[in-house]
Design a protein that fits this description.
Two copies of one chain form a homodimer. Chain A has 314 residues and is α+β, with helices and mostly antiparallel strands. Helices cover 32% and strands 26% of the residues of chain A. In chain A, strands 7-9-6-10-8-11-12 form a seven-stranded mixed β-sheet, with helices on both faces. In chain A, helix 2 packs parallel to helix 3. The two termini of chain A are 26 Å apart.
Chain lengths: 314, 314
Amino acid sequence: MRWHGNGRWVSAELNFIEALRQFATHPAARGLNDDAAVLEIGKARLILTHDSLVEGVHYLHSDPPESVAWKLLAVNLSDLAAKGGTPRGAMMSYTLLSDPEWDARFAAGLGAALSHFDVALLGGDTVSAPSRVLGLTLIGEASGPVPARSGAHSGDALFVTGVIGDAGLGLKIAQGLQGNAELLAAYQRPQPQLGAGALLASVVTAMMDVSDGLLIDAGRLAAASGLCAVIDLDAVPLSPAFREYAGETREARLRAATAGDDYQLLFTSALPLPPLPVPVTRIGKMTVGEGLILADHKGPVPLPEKLGWLHGLP
Amino acid sequence: MRWHGNGRWVSAELNFIEALRQFATHPAARGLNDDAAVLEIGKARLILTHDSLVEGVHYLHSDPPESVAWKLLAVNLSDLAAKGGTPRGAMMSYTLLSDPEWDARFAAGLGAALSHFDVALLGGDTVSAPSRVLGLTLIGEASGPVPARSGAHSGDALFVTGVIGDAGLGLKIAQGLQGNAELLAAYQRPQPQLGAGALLASVVTAMMDVSDGLLIDAGRLAAASGLCAVIDLDAVPLSPAFREYAGETREARLRAATAGDDYQLLFTSALPLPPLPVPVTRIGKMTVGEGLILADHKGPVPLPEKLGWLHGLP
């Protein structure tokens, strides 16, 4: 589940989700306030998530169809990773636009991505439509506890996997700026942290994926937990490619922390962490209060007006 | 699952589905050739289906948002009914188009439909998009055998529930022709046959829902089973409202049998049927061969060029 932020119609979207929340009262829905639904059937604990990609909103018309297919699967796997789940299968919704070459390249890319992540395509629907809206429901399973966004405690440390900001620069490169292939790949081929998520699920108090921007998503985790997130901007992990491209000034770090599309895991814990297949960085802590507090070595950092990516590609 | 027919891009769609079929080899996918996927997890037998509605393709711009919401749920429930399943929850994909009144009416209609059918909304995704593409993944569960389209035997009788053709006339009424509310409701508020489907699942050899037209869907059941469907056009059940509106000539009956949007169950069996909550009519039988053979009291009926609704609203 991802009733996520949206640039143009934020207020309309919030009203719509609030209307749905009135009747989405089944505990599996988690109040429409988490990355996924958690449905117990028989002795199985299913994790269900659905994310859509809209051309011109979530990806560029010029993006290769193969990478759009990769991304459609990867963004859903990232939600599943945040719940510690293992994928069991996918249902796809696909719009046909009289462009058989695009369709063929998408299908080839989807097959490669499914194979890479060992996910079965179970079914779906193909419709003709005036614009591309690609949807995927991922069905996963959890063998243990399924962390929510809402479980953080005051005093927990706040961590993030991998590096932040590469995908934001990758988008600029996809739009025509000069830049290296590593950054472009971070935008076009995000790597969901399934292995780390499964290992972390039993030791975190809260977990979610960073899809819309580190700051906006940290704010959501804090709000869901009824706490304040205190973030050390200097600790936000940047890649060598990011530093080379954008530097590591306060402005560059704010750019990384608000760009979105990172698909890293953001989580809180007071316990020692297990060995993980990806680097993990402690970027702050949770305290009593609400919202975000940001600082770096120079002192307090005013919150930027835009905390995350608002899904409106220029 | 519904990789279903499409008027404008039939060949492109078939090519695309064929490409997916190369890697959709998990048995749960049923070869992308059934109404739903059937996934065993733990001791549960999940039934998964996804159908989308595109404005101007599957419904009219002028249709009330409440009935679009009803239809989005009902068409998926109809797929589940054809597999004898019980609904467990739904994931929705929703496009926002800067029309808050439409959104509010849709949400109210969805809440009413979910309540009517006792289905939990578990989660989903809201995206801004240039056109409306509404998707729903339905998660159901089966307690017994899950019939496929492919299980019919030569000699089985072919049955259909309810009446055929009302929704096709209802579409004309929605488009402005005079007509009664019952026909309009058949188009705007289809009634999935969940009760009948659950009772039939253990006595049928094949079952599917009639969504694109009785003839085209009977042809699909026959093809999946490697048989020929012999249909008595005179036996196709018509409502009093249909007879009053369109008569019961051969032409009227062909119109009913090719209109689509009926959401009745089409099934084959050689066994006595259990008592059912809806009328059931024997409309033919399965024989060795392939395709469709159509006849009425005057003799053989040439197959119409168009066997079903091709999802291109005029």
